[in-house]
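Tutorial, part two.
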Amino acid sequence: MVVVTGGDLSSPAVVRAVGQLRSNATSAGAIRPPVRTSAIADGRALLVQVPLAGSGSDPVSTHALDVLRGRILPATLGQVAGIRYSVTGWTASDHDDIKALHQSTPLVFAVVALLAFGLLLVAFRSIAIPLVSIALNLLSVAAAYGLLTLIFQDGRLQGLLGYTGYGAIVPWVPLFMFVFLFGLSMDYHVFILSRIRELRLGGMTTADSIEGGIARSAGVVTSAAVIMVAVFSILATLSLIQLKMIGIGLAVAVLIDATVVRGILLPAALALLGDRSWYLPRSLRWLPGGGRALTAPASPAPEPVQAVPAP
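Running the prediction step on this input gives:
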């Protein structure tokens, strides 16, 4: 659908441009006949219906849309002064939505990561912990993306899950899952780190505080993960493929995140870093919460040895 607006839409120049547009429609070209025109909005706009090659949602139609926008329309309607045109319709709307998602996805990733980094930097007064946390969260998201690709894009488990694959993933699902998973995993991630930091502030060594923090928070984190996996699994039983993708992706991602990532990789990373986990540059020590510094616990002083008198 090409919507044309402007001055006199019945002028010879507009009629001639529409005729040139119609002459570009061939049975083997990017646009196909018949090209129809109709006046809308009491003659204030002209609607030109241009059939595209392909099914409307395949790469052939996308290429035809690009040809229409980039070559055919500029050479026809674009040569008429005083008018404007825009391309709409299902194919154009889907193409523009996907393009907008692709353009905004890096910005969303960056904003979420920066906000998480700032929050964890202030909360735990450490440079290493925010970096490790963001890396682990991205690992959980990557696992969910891999699962979606394996099941829905590659068409696995169609009979078991009750869906018909079409070789792709719904465009908005990955971005939605990233934001949702990042928020969920950060919730109990902060809970675990808070337990570890409390023990560290209490004078334990980094190794002991990690062990104690994981042990104290394991029950709560496991219970929360089981509830979330059960709730998200319900979405996998629904008929809409978008909901199946979200349900399966979130359920498996939370399960992996609460067990492998938080139960194994997080304590392993902190143990490898040791006391460097709590490193904060001198230039950032003005941040709030600095009343109790995390320093290496002092070794206990040896007990005095009492001399035993000789018999």
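DSSP finds eight helices and four strands in the chain. In part three we will examine how such features are distributed along the chain.
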